[in-house]
Amino acid sequence: xxxxxxxxxxxxxxxxxxxxxxxxxxxxxxxxxxxxxxxxxxxxxxxxxxxxxxxxxxxxxxxxxxxxxxxxxxxxxxxxxxxxxxxxxxxxxxxxxxxxxxxxxxxxxxxxxxxxxxxxxxxxxxxxxxxxxxxxxxxxxxxxxxxxxxxxxxxxxxxxxxxxxxxxxxxxxxxxxxxxxxxxxxxxxxxxxxxxxxxxxxxxxxxxxxxxxxxxxxxxxxxxxxxxxxxxxxxxxxxxxxxxxxxxxxxxxxxxxxxxxxxxxxxxxxxxxxxxxxxxxxxxxxxxxxxxxxxxxxxxxxxxxxxxxxxxxxxxxxxxxxxxxxxxxxxxxxxxxxxxxxxx
Length: 344
Hints:
Elements: E1 7-12, H1 21-31, E2 44-48, E3 86-87, H2 89-92, E4 107-108, E5 135-139, H3 148-152, E6 158-160, E7 167-169, H4 179-183, E8 189-192, E9 197-200, H5 205-209, H6 215-218, E10 225-229, H7 236-243, E11 248-250, E12 260-263, E13 269-271, E14 277-281, H8 285-289, E15 292-293, H9 300-322, H10 328-333, H11 338-341
């Protein structure tokens, strides 16, 4: 079915605080009510470099590079989520009087050597001092233009809405075969073992229908998100992606044409061995090039050059604004109201 319009999101990673307000807003709204959803974070914020959530999702493959429903054993699906744990709050944070019986919060049960959970490696960076670095990467379903989850479902339970391109799972048609999970290289579809169906981010389509922004975008403390339609030439999403060309796709080599874009993060300059500042960014461009690009056919070198071009544009426009000169790009990236960055 032809798509009439495609909704998109742009996230400015230079403004992400890693506060997880978007994650908690999404969790509270959609996945904290029903059984079988404890492990589901339709929106999650990963620390990069890191293993992500689910663990090592980038290496699990998908429909894009196999076209074989049987290439990934079903037994491996849902691995990497780990399990939540509790802490000894009652021992450390006394609320009923008396002295605390413990001074340190420790998880219960104590994690084993193979333990993992959401945000397990939060704020754990790479590089060596004084050039250590990390940054935050918020992720939702990309609502791809060529979604492998749609192609891989034998019951046609996964589909793109014609009015806005949002990818949904028909809960009545779904039988929990989990081919959609196998097919998604971003691993942004989750299996509900209680309901025995697949579930995923719905881009808050009830709010979109009411001309409101999706919850992760409206609740974001850093106001990093821009939401709008690809063909709205007056909106910030179009201007960031197509006019200023400062927003890139996450892993375009997956060949799904994701519709969530990212403005790659700038970073302070690195130090050389003599302790002097250099002109090189603290976050190596090569690290960012492995994540972000425009199209599936770009080489890593081409992606790295695009990121350098984006950095040059961002710095140039920032300098103009600092001098009191007008800059459309800086005005877009620093919106004065929610309506400036969300047009649905």
